Amino acid sequence: MAIVVQKYGGSSVADADKIRNVARRIAEKYTKGEKVVAVVSAMGDTTDNLLDLASKINANPEPREMDLLLSTGEIVSSTLLAMALHASGFKAIALSGPQAGISTDASFSRARITGIQPRRIIKELDRGNIVIVAGFQGMTKDKDITTLGRGGSDTTAVALAVSLKANICEIYTDVEGVYTADPRIVPEANKLSEIGYEEMLEMATSGAKVMHHRAVELGQVFNMPILVASSYVEKPGTIIHGGDNMEARNKVRGIAHDMDVAKITIAGVPDRPGIAAAIFLPMAREGISVDTIVQNASANNITDLTFTVSRGDLKKAMEIVKPVAHEIGAKECLSNSAMGKVSIIGIGMQNTPGYAAKMFQTLSEQGINIELITTSEIRITCIISEDKIKDAVKALHKVFELDKG
Amino acid sequence: MAIVVQKYGGSSVADADKIRNVARRIAEKYTKGEKVVAVVSAMGDTTDNLLDLASKINANPEPREMDLLLSTGEIVSSTLLAMALHASGFKAIALSGPQAGISTDASFSRARITGIQPRRIIKELDRGNIVIVAGFQGMTKDKDITTLGRGGSDTTAVALAVSLKANICEIYTDVEGVYTADPRIVPEANKLSEIGYEEMLEMATSGAKVMHHRAVELGQVFNMPILVASSYVEKPGTIIHGGDNMEARNKVRGIAHDMDVAKITIAGVPDRPGIAAAIFLPMAREGISVDTIVQNASANNITDLTFTVSRGDLKKAMEIVKPVAHEIGAKECLSNSAMGKVSIIGIGMQNTPGYAAKMFQTLSEQGINIELITTSEIRITCIISEDKIKDAVKALHKVFELDKG
Q1: Which of A42-56, A159-173, B136-150, B247-261 comes out lowest in average pLDDT?
Q2: Which of A289, A391, B206, B401 has a Cα-to-Cα distance from B373 of 20 to 30 A?
Q3: Which of B174, B196, B220 is the last residue of a domain?
Q4: How far is it, in rounded angstroms, from Cα B323 to Cα B191?
Q5: Cβ B61–A86 below 8 Å, yes or no?
Q6: Is A285 within the bounds of a domain?
Q7: More confidently predicted of B12 and A207
Q8: For residues A381 and A292, is the Cβ–Cβ distance under 8 A?
Q9: Is the pLDDT score of A331 beyond 60?
């Protein structure tokens, strides 16, 4: 009998009615003769409410206690989902992360799964139970409770699917799949029936909110197919996989965008070795993620260094950068928090000339100034003003013919 | 260095300010050089809210899932209390029941502690940590989470005190100690500075709400002194202990009362063997606790059988009793849910004539009709009409000179 692992996000289990709906969907699968393991996130705003509660008591809580606190959210939703299945006459059991055998390292608030011992899950499946697993959590070898950080429940689901040798990992969420662009901006956007792991990774890291890149990476490493589909409507969704014919298709698959971009420019930097390290090492130590970095061609050994961070990190980044800039004799330090980025993504682009040129031309025709450009093998990204993002996404979606399905 | 185990109830940690207050009290003890282990209940209404949530999904939830759900309440309060201590600069760690090494049997919703392995607690104390333990919960040998039922967190605290060889178990609550009677009824009631385990047990089972009898029993078995005192004011409280001079004191120590009493009378019962079993076995199977049972002297082999249950159980009890009464040829089956009981309690009463007579006379002078009487070695209880309970408690408190301190 095949094992299927499903995951339902927080908005899918936000209240009693929604939990009953999820129970009904799981029961349908089970009734078809499949062994079902369902991973759940915390109900709706539970995690935010727990964070609020903690912040009233301690502005800077210990990560160990924070993880133990937050882990309760997924335990609540998993038990309620099991109760909903019982109420409909199905055999089900709720397991916390530790009960499900999920071991992690001790990096509280962003723990990595180090192993899964699925003995208990298999025993319960063999007893005919639907197994509900609290997502987002695990246990260290010292029996401390950890949480997995952003994208945690998706990661739990993919890791369990791998460990249980499931046929597929199904991620049910509040969107119907992966689209060629954000349908709120481009109403003509098409749902992709399938997408490659790498393309999906680029979509995720370029701002598409459907799935966190971490779970996609795990799927890619173990070649576990991942279905992304709606919790509410019975429609096909998108399958993320490592299929065969992707090298050949050679076209833009999707447009991703991200509004959460702030830009910092250090102007008039003396161009000598060690400058970049002097700037970026202290930021790394403070946990600030730097995204795009561009250094202009040096004239007279003076250069401009520009990079982007998320808006929430801008203030802290400037506090770190300003004294360093002063110390190394830079001319000035400028920031702009109203930036965004737009990306075109597709396997094979780098072997085919013209994609970049077409992208730049399209933006130019829209009167959009490109501030920074970065590329990967399967992605071209332009940093532009935030207020131009929507126009850019619409224009690129059209010019790369993604509206034609 | 001495270990002290403290317990704080749900009303003592009901919000952020109250949690800070508890943290301050714990920190005072720690600063005096004691090793502190603090057991906490769930915040205020948390448990009721979780029960409500579950009841919306399943009217009759599985006890296993219910326990896993409810156990989250104490984890939340214990982590927040640890965070409050951190915020004041103290070293503290929150442990769930399983992390604290508390093993139980698998009787979900009313599990019994089968053992405590306090290795982790001792390690954390040795590291200089204040250890906060989530009360009311434990883990079976199959790693399922259990809750201990009523009085659970008190039981956790006393069991930990025994296991850690603490000097004392301190129960902090919203009353200042054990009183000679309920101060809401008798304003002259005096706080007892000490009371024996057995007397406290009789007080608890006779309706005094201060502590559940289960934790007192555990204290008695292991001779662990228990202090009951206020979470809010710095006053001495009451010490429950097995002291030496109790045999000798030979007086009424307190008046307990209970308003939650319903009476069932089966009239005209044929007086033959097996009748009582026929009535009480099916009730036991349904989990209905029968308190007082009285059978009147038989005339012509026809007798009346009267017993009491808690009001919440009356409906179910009548559904069980009526067909049985019919089957055994009883005349009729009557019930009255507006009953109460009042008890006088004190070691040595049974060896001294006159206590019972004085009690009955006092009630008679108040015009109170005694419906049933039961006694133990250190207690005399009368079942009377609920609306007479307050008068009875006041009169007995005065006649046994408890107002004189």
Answers
A1: B247-261
A2: B401
A3: B174
A4: 48
A5: yes
A6: yes
A7: B12
A8: yes
A9: yes
CATH code of the domain in which B359 resides? 3.30.2130.10
% of chain A with per-residue pLDDT over 70? 97
**B201 in any annotated domain:** no
Give A244's DSSP letter.
S
Tokens for B176, please give them. Answer: 């200042």
Please check whether residues B12 and B129 belong to one and the same domain. Answer: yes
- Asked if residues A130 and A26 have their Cβ atoms less than 8 Å apart, the reply is yes
Q: What is the mean pLDDT of residues B9-18?
A: 95
User: Are A37 and A153 found together in one domain?
Assistant: yes
Q: What does the pLDDT read at residue B304?
A: 86
Domain membership flag for residue B190: no
ipTM for the assembly: 0.83
Q: Residue A89: which domain range?
A: 3-174
Look at residue B273 and tell me whether its pLDDT is greater than 70. Answer: yes
Look over chain A and give the mean of its residue pLDDT values, rounded to a whole number.
Answer: 91
Q: Which residues of A touch B (CB under 8 A)?
A: 16, 19-20, 50, 53-54, 56-59, 61-62, 64-66, 68-69, 71-72, 75-76, 78-80, 82-84, 86-87, 93-94, 96, 98-99, 120, 143-145
Give B64's contacts in chain A (Cβ within 8 Å). 93
Residue A132's beta-bridge partner residues?
A: A38, A94
- Indicate the number of domains in chain B: 2
Which of the two residues, A353 and B285, has the higher pLDDT score?
A: B285
Option in A53, A57, A99 nearest B87 (CB): A57
Is residue B17 pLDDT above 60, yes or no? yes
Chain B neighbors of A99, CB-CB under 8 A: 143-144
End-to-end CA distance of chain B: 36
Q: Residue B120 belongs to a domain with what CATH number?
A: 3.40.1160.10
Among A59, A68, A80, residue whose Cα is nearest residue A108: A68
Contacts of A120 in chain B (CB under 8 A): 143
Domain match, A283 and A149 both: no
Same-domain pairing of A168 and A274: no
* pLDDT score for A288: 86
Confidence category of residue B247, pLDDT binned at 50, 70, 90 = very low
Token couple for B44: 């205020």
Residue A240 lies in a domain: no
**Alpha carbon of A148: minimum distance to chain B alpha carbons (Å):** 18
Compute the average pLDDT of residues A336-365.
87
Assess whether B259 and B390 both reside in one domain: yes
pTM across the whole model: 0.86
Which residue do the tokens 């249950």 mark? B309
Q: What is the DSSP string of B91-133?
A: -EEEE-TTTTTEEE-S-TTSPPEEEE-THHHHHHHHTT-EEEE
Residues B15, B123 within the same domain: yes
**What 3-state class would DSSP assign to B157?**
helix
Residue B298 has pLDDT above 80, yes or no: no
Residue finishing a domain among A158, A174, A190: A174
Sheet containing A226-230, strands listed edge to edge, beginning at the edge strand earlier in sequence: A92-95, A130-134, A35-40, A3-8, A168-173, A226-230, A238-241, A194-196
Query: What integer is the mean pLDDT of B143-167?
Result: 95
Say how far apart CA A1 and CA A167 lie, in whole Å. Answer: 10
Is the predicted pLDDT of residue A337 greater than 90, yes or no? yes
- Chain A residues lying within 8 Å of B83, measured CB to CB: 54, 57-58, 61-62, 65-66, 69
Handedness of CA A276, A277, A283, A289 (dihedral sign): positive
- The answer to whether residues B304 and B160 belong to one domain is no
Q: Give contacts of B57 with chain A, Cβ < 8 Å.
A: 16, 19-20, 80, 83-84, 87
Lookup result for tokens 């727990």: A50
Min Cα separation A91/chain B (Å): 11
Q: Are residue A44 and residue A168 in the same domain, yes or no?
A: yes
pLDDT (mean) for A11-38: 96
CB pairs under 8 A between A and B: 105
